[in-house]
């Protein structure tokens, strides 16, 4: 009988650079490099591919003890996915107030945002985003986050999502990791939060 795949994860600064590159090697992620909420302007007009490549490299901080911008998920030891999670203030676009779901409760302290999921080709539809969402909780407790906040899409019944939308995560993925809906600012967008245990 075939055993189920083993899921593990590492903060990206503790992962190998090749693992990060492998996850970001195809699809929209290869172009975006998880910079959509990082660049102050409109991503394709105001940043070059070289700048986005360099920014991801700097933000993940592979091989250092410095802060990092996300987690790499592994299936049976092979790099398979990514989830972006870091302090909310590290996302300039979230503070632009251009969208009703951005910058909610700006005075709330200790908020870490979960903004993006990437699943490597060949691993899709395997439930990996659920594993990655659960990993954000474990990681958030390790780094002392007070609240985790996500911005998932909930498609209307019978409707599917395009890649751009799915990259922020689907509502069900967050709910299964113990997040709760705190706002429904648009027809499809939800704001979810999970308050974490403050273990001293």
TrEMBL record:
<protein>
    <recommendedName>
        <fullName>GCN5 family acetyltransferase</fullName>
    </recommendedName>
</protein>
<dbReference type="InterPro" id="IPR016181">
    <property type="entry name" value="Acyl_CoA_acyltransferase"/>
</dbReference>
């Amino acid at each position: 009988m075939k055993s189920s795949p083993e899921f593990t994860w590492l903060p990206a600064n503790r992962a190998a650079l090749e693992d990060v590159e492998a996850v970001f090697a195809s699809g929209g992620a290869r172009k975006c490099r998880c910079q959509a909420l990082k660049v102050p302007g409109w991503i394709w007009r105001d940043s070059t591919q070289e700048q986005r490549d360099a920014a991801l490299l700097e933000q993940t901080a592979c091989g250092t003890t410095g802060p990092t911008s996300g987690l790499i998920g592994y299936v049976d030891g092979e790099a398979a996915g990514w989830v972006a999670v870091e302090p909310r203030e590290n996302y300039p676009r979230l503070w632009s107030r251009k969208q009703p779901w951005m910058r909610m409760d700006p005075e709330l302290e200790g908020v870490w945002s979960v903004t993006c999921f990437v699943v490597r080709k060949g691993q899709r539809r395997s439930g990996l985003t659920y594993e990655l969402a659960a990993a954000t909780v474990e990681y958030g407790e390790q780094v002392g986050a007070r609240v985790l906040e996500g911005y998932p899409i909930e498609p209307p019944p019978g409707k599917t999502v395009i890649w751009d939308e799915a990259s922020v995560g689907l509502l069900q993925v967050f709910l299964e990791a113990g997040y709760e809906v705190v706002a429904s600012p648009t027809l499809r967008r939800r704001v979810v939060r999970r308050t974490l245990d403050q273990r001293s």
